[in-house]
Specification:
alpha/beta, Urease, subunit C, domain 1, TIM Barrel, 8-stranded mixed sheet, 27% strand
């Protein structure tokens, strides 16, 4: 059945349409148009959201869990609970993200995540979908490892990458790697050949090494500024490359804890509205009360919005709708600019624009209804409303 969704504002998000309609058939968008361009078909069901904003569903490419669910530890049967929670915050697709753990445990987690992804591909619940896996570790710098356990970090080799790839049954879509590690450039090239979005991060690299990584196939940067060699005015390091290379997209955790609002502004000005990406880096504690939680093998204390382990930040309890609103409050970006960083830019970075990040004919009807402040009113997955 054809359903027409109407709203005063539609963010595609590369453009903003006023008094617009989105036609959905069989879970996909068949047409997008403005009121003056054509009449509504007489046989269509119409859902009118009045003065709200229709935007693509958010895509979170770096998230470890939420609603008490830890992506590395939870069985596939628990992932729908995470998907339902994420949809309530406007997310319609996400990349469950690993942390450095013993190799056998990592491979077992990758198998479970692959199960979850494949089961969701075959099912049709109106919840956020696990789209692909983000490998954060084990190829990270010891010096910039953050809370990743040092005993679980390994030197990158194509053989180890292939073992992880096979365990995930090819569902790895993104990988964070420190490019200065011996063997990293070869792994970057091989991962890029397999269409993985290679992201440089957890790194102490000098700028020339970061540039070599880009030439080898890296195209993104992970939680910029965090777990990175600090920017120096004479020795800019990895951040010099991330902030100045217009071929690289990059992401940030805009929770007001990982970065000050002033640094968020610096990042947004450097990467612009086309290459800045929002992530949450959220852990299982997101949406839960303060207390003790797990981040893979890591015990994390959550108090007053801060997630720490051994005195270091250990992910966040940020939701993507809050990240979008924070960006509008921390900078001069409009709501549409911030939405773009959580949708189109993320999808373009990881290569999922067919189904995520845009409201155009042919795309899956994954969209969110927002009020003018960026608060989520409803979310739709495949044209079906997600229930709270």
């Amino acid at each position: 059945m054809k359903t027409i969704f109407a709203a005063q504002h539609v963010y595609t998000p590369s453009e903003e349409l006023e008094n617009a309609f989105i036609s959905v058939e069989d879970g996909r968008i068949s047409r997008v148009w403005q009121q003056e361009e054509a009449e509504i078909p007489a046989d269509a069901k119409v859902v009118n959201f009045g003065d709200a904003v229709l935007a693509p569903g958010f895509l979170d490419i770096h998230i470890h869990g939420g609603a008490g669910v830890d992506a590395m530890r939870a069985p596939a049967s628990e992932m729908p609970r995470l998907g339902k929670f994420l949809a309530s915050h406007g997310v319609t697709g996400y990349f469950p993200t690993t942390v450095a753990a013993p190799m056998d445990a990592t491979c077992a987690a990758l198998e479970r995540l692959a199960d979850a992804i494949e089961s969701e591909q075959n099912g049709h619940p109106a919840t956020a979908k696990a789209v692909g896996i983000h490998l954060e570790g084990p190829f990270l710098s010891h010096k910039r490892r953050g809370v990743h356990p040092p005993e679980n970090l390994v030197a990158p080799t194509v053989a180890i990458f292939d073992r992880l790839w096979q365990a995930a049954r090819g569902q790895v879509r993104m990988m964070t790697i420190a490019p200065e590690l011996p063997g990293a450039l070869e792994v970057i090239a091989e991962a890029a050949r397999r269409k993985v979005c290679v992201s440089i991060g957890h790194s102490d690299a000098e700028m020339p090494i970061a540039q070599q990584a880009v030439r080898a196939g890296a195209r993104h940067a992970t939680h910029t500024f965090n777990a990175m060699r600090p920017l120096d005015h004479r020795d800019p390091g990895i951040l010099g490359e991330v902030l100045t290379d217009n071929t690289l997209s990059a992401d940030i955790v805009a929770d007001g804890i990982h970065l000050s609002p002033a640094v968020v502004q610096i990042f947004l000005r450097a990467k612009g509205t086309e290459r800045a990406v929002l992530i949450t880096d959220a852990i299982s504690a997101t949406g839960m009360p303060d207390g003790q939680y797990q981040l893979g093998p890591i015990e994390v204390e959550v108090k007053d919005g801060r997630c720490t382990s051994g005195g270091s930040l250990a992910g966040s309890v940020l939701t993507m709708d809050r990240a979008v609103r924070n960006v509008t409050q921390f900078s001069n970006w409009t709501l549409r600019d911030a939405v773009r960083a959580a949708t189109l830019n993320a999808a373009r970075a990881v290569g999922t624009m067919k189904d995520y990040g845009t409201l155009v004919p042919g795309a899956r009807a994954n969209f969110v209804v927002l009020n003018s402040n960026g608060e989520v009113l409803k979310a739709f997955v495949g044209g079906r409303e997600s229930q709270p």
